[in-house]
Amino acid sequence: MLPAYDAASDYSHWDAGLWTRVLAASGVRSPFTDQPFTEAMLSGLAGGIGFMIFTFEYKEITTASAVTRFHPGPYTENLLRRSGAAINIQQTGSAKLAQSRLDAALETGVPAVVRVVRGKLPWAAEDPLADADSVDVAVVARDGGDYLVDDGGGQLRRSTAQELAQARGSRKADKHWQAHVSPRGADPMDSEALTAEVVRAAMAETAGELLSQQSPPGIPPGYAKNFGIRGMQTWAQRLADSSTKHGWMRIFGDPDRSAAGMGMLHGLLAGKRYSGPGALRPLYAQFLDEAAASTDAVSATGRAGLAEAAAQYRALGEHWEALTALVGAAGEPDFAAMAGRVEAIAELEGHAAQTLQAAVA
Known about the structure:
Elements (H helix, E strand, L loop, with lengths): L13 H12 L13 H8 L2 E9 L4 E8 L5 H9 L3 E5 L3 H13 L4 E5 L18 E9 L2 E5 L5 E5 H8 L8 E5 L14 H16 L16 H13 L7 H4 L3 H16 L10 H14 L5 H29 L6 H26 L1
Antiparallel strand pairs: 1-2, 3-8, 4-5, 4-8, 5-6, 6-7
């Protein structure tokens, strides 16, 4: 086991927290502080915050899903590229070659990140909805015939080569994917040198996506209403709608559908895979503070604007926590109260994003 790797460290968001530990254990440092990257800085470089809301009606269940991080843009890819770290990304259809590459990476003394279907790991329960997407985990070291894996549970878990290969090979799109910090002289992925301009561009992208009236890149135009602050406004309207087929009072009118849908939504908002404490707004506020203090990404006037935006996002974290509690409350859902809370959040999010956009303009 690598003594520098701390699997018990707390985190707000799984992907940013994972790469905070992996980069620190790999000896990567921030060019601004000459210290290991903070989770806040890596999260901000990844795109930080965003919003998406969708419901789908099936024969026996109605789902409700929300994402409060930067989405659907390439969150992890942004983080790795913008960090400036020399990252080697590999993928193969061969389990044998994948294990050989994993062993080779671990032999250089750094952890490797692999993509797995979590329910296929020997200690994890299967969840059809959650396991529809892969999740990144860190393989920290090899100990005899076993691998030591960090899946965010606060401790390293043991997995045999066969068990790990099954989890890595269960989803075709991410089959045997691996990323690790390259030793000097290797051929890493294309990365940017982390400069103040890179930080400024990351902040501008976040503000622009939140304020956009268009669908995100790669998403059909008809779904623009489900993303960003516009998506929050759509959600507020549908929560309050009692007369049309899109209103939540209708689509979740059946108690069983309501219980399943609200349970799913609460799990996403309260969890750390697609969201985090306060919908990740407090973590983003910390990123803005660090950006203002450690870089010259903006002018003196811009730094004042970043401080204002940070204060707005900290306050928004409390509003998101109150909304999450409403969604998870026992008994019949109070859609009217949720609508009022989401409407207020949308307005405050608009002000905060405008403040941020002006600061980095």
